[in-house]
Each structure stands twice: as C-alpha cells, then as structure tokens.
Hints:
The complex is a heterodimer of chains A (197) and B (317). Chain A is mainly alpha-helical and 197 residues long. Chain A is 68% helix and 2% strand. Chain A starts with a helix and ends with a helix. With 317 residues, chain B is mostly helical. Chain B has 14 helices and two strands, in the order ααααααββαααααααα. In chain B, α2 (43-66) runs antiparallel to α3 (77-87). Chain A binds chain B through residues 167, 169-172, 174, 176, 180, 187, and chain B through 108, 112, 130, 133-136.
Amino acid sequence: MKNLIKEFTKGIIKENPTFVLALGLCPTLAVSVSVVNAIGMGIAATFVLLGSSLIISLIRDFIPDKIRIPCYIVIIATFVTIAELCMKAYSPALDRSLGIYVPLIVVNCMVLGRAEAFACKNNLARSFFDGLGMGIGFTLALILISAIREFLGSGQILGHTLVKGFEPIFVFGMPSGALLVIGLLLGLFNLLKDKRA
Amino acid sequence: MINNLIVSGSPHIHKQESVSRIMWTVVISLIPAGIAGVIIFGLDALWVTLVAVVAAVLTELIFGIWVKKKITVLDGSAVITGILLAFNLPSGVPLWLPIVGAVFSIAIGKQVFGGLGQNIFNPALVGRVFLMASWPKYMTTFTQPLHTGVGYDALTSATPLVMLKEGKILEHISYLDLFLGKHAGCIGEVCILALLIGAAILLIKGYISWHIPLTYIFTTAMFTYVFGAAQLFSGDWLFHILSGGLILGAFFMATDYVATPLTARGQLIFGIGCGLLTAVIRIWGGYPEGVSYAILMMNAATPFIDRYTKCRIYGTR
C-alpha cells in the first residue's frame, strides 16, 4: 500500500511531468493561456493517461515487442477519441478553445512515455496510481502556469478581475510569454530541488 | 638592484584598458544624444533616462548580492543598458515603463545567462522588445518635438517611418530636420548629429570597429534604394538611413562586444544580415521599424557565424 502511495505522489512533485521530466511541453505552451483551458486539457490528458495505462498494463504480456509502439498508439487514440467526443458533446465551448490540441494528446510524449516507461513493466494497481499521479501532476502544472499567464497577460483569473488598474502585460498571452514562464518555473523548481538536496 | 627584476608570465606589455574604462567611455559617448533628446523632447526625456539607469543599476546590484557574485555595478555595463533602453523609448511613457523594462533587461536579458559576458542577446534590446510586445500603446505613442507644438503634454505625432508605412506624404520633413532630430521618435534615436559625435569618440578610441556599423548602414541603404519604392532602383535611401533607430542601433547596439561575432569576417556578415533584416522589416514587415528585431535575430545567429568564420590556426589545414 505504501508503495502505491509513493507511485501516486511521485508524479505530483518529485517526477512532475512538466517541471522535472519536461514532457508534454507542446500542449503546455499552447493551451496555458487561461485557467479554464488548463483544467479542461488537464482532465482530458489525465483521463487518457489513466485509461491507456490500465489497458496497456493489462495486456502487456500479449503485445509483441516489435510492434509495441503502434499498439500503444491505437490504445491511446481510442481514449483520446472518447475524450474528444465527450468534450464536443458536453462542453462545445471548451472544445472550440482547445481546438487541435485535444486530438494531439495521441502523440503527447507524456502519455506515450508513461506507457513505454512504466505501464508495460508494472502491474495493474501500480500503473493505475502512476497514471493518476502523473495526470494530476500535469494538471497542477498546467493550472500553475496558466494562472500566472492569465493574471499577467489579461489581469484576470478564471475571468474575474483581481487588481483594479493593473495594466495587462500582453506578452504573457503570447507563446513567447509561455516559454518565459515555463523557463522561470523550471529554474525555480531546480533551485528548490538543489536547496533540499 | 636585484630586487627590481620582476619575473612574471606574459603578457609583459599592458595597455591601460579595462572593461570598466571601455564601458564608461561608451556612457560618455552616449551623452550627446541624451542632451539632444532632452533639448528636443523636454525634461520628460531626462526623467525616463534617469529612472531606467537607476532601475538597471539597482537590479544588477540586487542580483549580485543574491547570487553572491562579485558586485559588478561599478563597471558601467548596467548604466549603458539603462541608457540604451531609455533611448529606445518614446519620451512620453509613464515612468513605471522604463523601470519594468530595465529590470527585465538586466534580470532576464543578462543575469539569468550569468551576467556580463554571458548574455546571448543585447540586454537593452531584450527589454525594449519585451515592452513593445507587452504595452504597444505606450511604445507607439510618440511626442512631438517641443518647438513645433504648443505644449508637449498634448501633442502626439507619428514617426517619419510610421507615416511612410501608412503611405502619407513626407514632403514637409527635410533631410536636415531628420539629421538634427526635429521629428517624433524615441529619445535617443532622433538626433543623428549627436549620435555621430558619440560614434566618432568610440571609433577614434578604437573601442568599436567600422565593420558592423558601415556594412549595416550600407546594406540597409542599398536594399531600400533597390526595393524601397514602387519601381526598382528609386527608393529614398537617405531617408531610411536618417530615420528610425538605424544610426543608434548600428553604432551602439549592433557593436555590443558580447553578442556579436569576434572576427572581422564574421562582423561583416553580421552587419549585412542586420541591414537586410532591417530593410525587409521596414519595406514589407508589419512594423514600421525593424532595427531592434534585426539586431536580436543576428545576435541569435552569432554563435553560428563565429563557428564558420574561425581563423585558421597556423599550421593546420
């Protein structure tokens, strides 16, 4: 049990997919303009990660080694399609604002990376907690980045204006601002890690 | 007698040059353009410059203390960054703008890379581009020169390059007006005469070489002459040299020691590249002025230029 909790918590801080493993940066750069987008993207990615980790860990003994990547892609694409259709059905506005980045979860290196590095070597329970932890870590990182960007770039968080008279710094709403924020946060996380070690 | 013999390793002949001496000379060479800016745009220009310099120096100091490095404030490089940043701003900006710009220049443009000598981009231009992308409405509101308007808080005006971009007629601006700076623009870029005095100091002292400025200006002139108008070979090249930040950029920002190529051959390539990019942005780009973007792009290309223009080591093939 203790082991499982460790698998779960490592994805949130110690092996955070965005800030430590630096995986899945493309959707991070693209959708972190607003917190709403970040939450939507985070939930979709967590769902896909969880589902694909489960299935891959269940059938890991039947997948021939040579064609394992295409097999993973098919499984991941199935879950991405489910997520995309659900989003289209229940939240069309979110679907429009995320656009191409929902289908692109198929080739998200975080999802594929966990399948290749973890789910194909571990049993069901461990893969489940690993996927859940990684998904939540990814979502939290997205929310952190997008909160900073939305506040600095438009002076709002979740559509609410926080400080009156604050002049929005437009650059944080652009991709260059995303790179700046991610770079500085990566530096900060490394600094904290060095301090602790 | 025997004690007068000093045994030491080479070099044995020293020149009295140092980083701080060069930097302070550059500061002095920028003063004429600053005075011209204050005469043209009034005391606002002075406050913007002072605030930018103070903010840049304080940021450098705080960073130095924080990362426990040798304090490098006195070498004057932060002062230059502050002055150059302010020279690239319109005089009518609110005073928090140069502060934010200077802090960004020093912190993100210079110190995160490791301080003086390590930055890959010209810090002042990094700050300017950041401000340009963040608050375009302040960065593109230019004040009329004092003597042409009634009061300087009220009048704003487009720069000659903006007018050119919008297709307005430029007949009321003579080359002499452009040369002396009697038009709207950024604080330090308008008075070509003052900039040339400063550039002459640096060239005579040998602190900058002619390679980058000359090729830069010449390439921009050639390109705008060929493609600058509706017909080929009829562009107003002198106008393009005298307006915008070309002279300021060519002599003071494209010659940054750190972010430009080391060899003469590399510097020629750098200058031509800057000139081409500036002219392309001015003629076909979305912005009226392209000097800062051109220099930053060539800064990014500098490592490659350096790699391919390395001097042959004697005895190797």
